[in-house]
Amino acid sequence: MPIALSTLAVLVTGASLGPLRGALSAALYLGLGAFGAPIFANGQSGVGFPTFGYVVGFVVAAFVAGQLARRGADRRVVSTLALGALGSLVLYACGVPWLALSLGVDLGEALALGVYPFLIGDALKVLALAALLPSAWRLVGRIEASTDGGGR
């Protein structure tokens, strides 16, 4: 399986666009690829490849990240770490069963193929998310504060 920043992008998208728009943007990506656009990893398309369950998970994870962000979980480092961890867990929950069924392997083998090799990379992505989102919100607050004082 390829390593990409798509999981980080999905979580950022969900948190920044909100649950509905985040999930719809991920669903658009899923739909385009499912109907033949070669936009998935390694130029794949369709639904018959082993990692398609993770793409389905993008939609659910974007929604979950959006819901948590709506409640302010993207404003502080610790809560953003939880947002990222939960989003990653959602991706695994959608991807691993599809992987197991697609490859005809048991759950243990699917975890060995589709989770364990990616835990360190996903942890680094969650750390990046926890640095990015709260910092971005602080920057937005500063910009808003500097523009509100001038003309109102």
Percentage of residues in strands = under 5%
Label the overall shape: globular
Question: What is the strand tally?
Answer: 0
Q: What does the largest sheet look like?
A: none
Radius of gyration: 17 Å
- Overall structural class, as computed from helix and strand content, comes to mainly alpha
Second CATH tier, the architecture:
Orthogonal Bundle
Mean pLDDT: 93
The CATH topology is given as Arp2/3 complex 21 kDa subunit ARPC3
List SSEs in N-to-C order. HHHHHH
Poorly predicted segments: none
Q: Helix count, per DSSP?
A: 6
Helix content: over 70%
Class in CATH? Mainly Alpha
Euclidean distance between termini CA atoms: 54 Å
Count of the domains: 1
Question: What are its keywords?
Answer:
single chain; 152 residues; mainly alpha; Arp2/3 complex 21 kDa subunit ARPC3; 6 helices
Element layout with pairings:
Elements: H1 6-17, H2 19-34, H3 52-70, H4 77-103, H5 107-114, H6 119-151
Helix pairs in contact: 1-2, 1-3, 1-6, 2-3, 3-4, 4-5, 4-6
Main location: membrane
Subcellular location: Cell membrane
Keywords: Cell membrane, Membrane, Transmembrane, Transmembrane helix, Transport
Describe the model.
It is a multi-pass membrane protein. The chain crosses the membrane at residues 49-69, 81-101, 113-133. This is Biotin transporter. InterPro entries: BioY. Helix 2 runs antiparallel to helix 3. The protein has helices at residues 6-17, 19-34, 52-70, 77-103, 107-114, 119-151. 76% of the residues lie in helices and 0% in strands. It has a single domain (6-141), classed as Arp2/3 complex 21 kDa subunit ARPC3, CATH 1.10.1760.20. With 152 residues, the protein is mostly helical. The longest helix is centred in the C-terminal third of the chain and has 33 residues, at 119-151. The model has no long low-confidence stretch (mean pLDDT 93). The protein is globular, with a radius of gyration of 17 Å.
